[in-house]
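To: structure subgroup
Subject: Chain for Friday's discussion

All,

I'm putting the inputs and outputs inline so they're searchable in the archive.
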Amino acid sequence: MARLPRLYAPGLPQLVQANFIQPLAAPSQPAPADILNQLAAWLGESALRHRVSVHGWVLANDRILLLATPADEEGLPRLMQTLGRNLAARLRGGRVFAGRYRSALLEPGAWVLPALVWLETYPVRSGASQDADSWPWSSAASHTGNTSAPPAAWQSDHADYWACGNTPFDRQANYRKRLHDGLTREESQRIDQAVSGQWALGGPGFIASLAHTASRRVAPGQRGRPRKKPAPPAPAAEGGETPPPPPPAPDSHR
């Protein structure tokens, strides 16, 4: 099956997931702080160079998760290529990512904050950390006001996060509660499906609005063959009567 082209639409955030071929550390081993610190530095440098606004991020032992808005269609691919090349050189191995990264377009005002919670709680779901905002290689601490990890200077919070409150304290308190409450099962499933399938995530109006701006179709097509349209009825004769059927063809064997 041919690979889908990258999904992109101007000005819209994307949720990105890239899995490593080999984890950076075994579950029983401590996180490789030196590698993850270097990876965070590369992420910041690449985001600035390729004009990608990073709203949320998690660097884990087995994957990279980003919530970002690229300035153009090439921004995210170039950023991820840079991270892959730099990490491969650091590890002195071959390819580091297990295939292409996957991404989903998000509807602002509806799915940006749920996607941010989904992303920042990954260290907890994977068993790497007891609290989302205590994982050092993440944007969660800056969003909740946890001073144990200084915010990244290159991080650019999304407008939906700014809408959580009028002051930094209000935003951090409201988002901290949202992060603690987590997502519903339906929300998590929809995000998982959108990222896995590389589709857009939003309401019907948002999906319809992408028809002329996205780089490709944004939702999976219906399975099976399309239904055949019924044949139109024969036009009525003058006076409203239905014309008689045509006479049978002559028998050529007579």
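Points worth raising on Friday:
The chain has a mean pLDDT of 87.
DSSP finds nine helices and five strands in the chain.

D.
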